[in-house]
Recover the amino acids of this structure.
């Protein structure tokens, strides 16, 4: 699991001062990217090797609004990993712990040239090893919570 704090900026809100719904996707991406970096991995190296990891599914469940001046506390974890697909789980909370959004995103790694999915164990064994360990660790932590 990895948690970051993001101050809600005026540009991310609508006329009512409420975070516009699509901006939560940016918050998720920031958290996911920091998680990956905290694991010693690098999306840029993957891209330089000719691969990308597109989002294939997004599910956001809005519970409570964040507004201008709030701080979004975003936690991300590996919810599911099977060597082909990675599903990240997220919560976006207010600093007082009240849930604003829960979400999941599904990703696959594909070759840039043809967008064919690849299996991480074959092409990126270091990512595979780390993701397997993280998915087991995160599952245990979520069970305890």
């Amino acid at each position: 699991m990895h948690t970051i704090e993001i101050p809600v900026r005026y540009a991310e809100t609508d006329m009512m001062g409420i975070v516009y719904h699509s901006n939560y996707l940016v918050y998720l991406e920031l958290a996911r990217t920091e998680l990956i970096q905290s694991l010693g991995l690098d999306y840029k190296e993957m891209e330089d090797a000719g691969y990308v990891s597109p989002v294939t599914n997004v599910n956001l469940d809005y519970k409570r609004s964040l507004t201008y001046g709030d701080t979004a506390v975003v936690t991300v974890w590996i919810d599911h990993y099977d060597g082909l697909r990675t599903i990240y789980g997220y919560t976006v909370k207010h600093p007082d712990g009240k849930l604003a959004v829960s979400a999941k995103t599904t990703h696959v790694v594909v070759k840039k040239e043809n967008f064919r999915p690849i299996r991480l164990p074959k092409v990126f064994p270091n990512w595979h090893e780390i993701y397997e360990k993280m998915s087991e660790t995160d599952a245990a932590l979520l069970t305890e919570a």
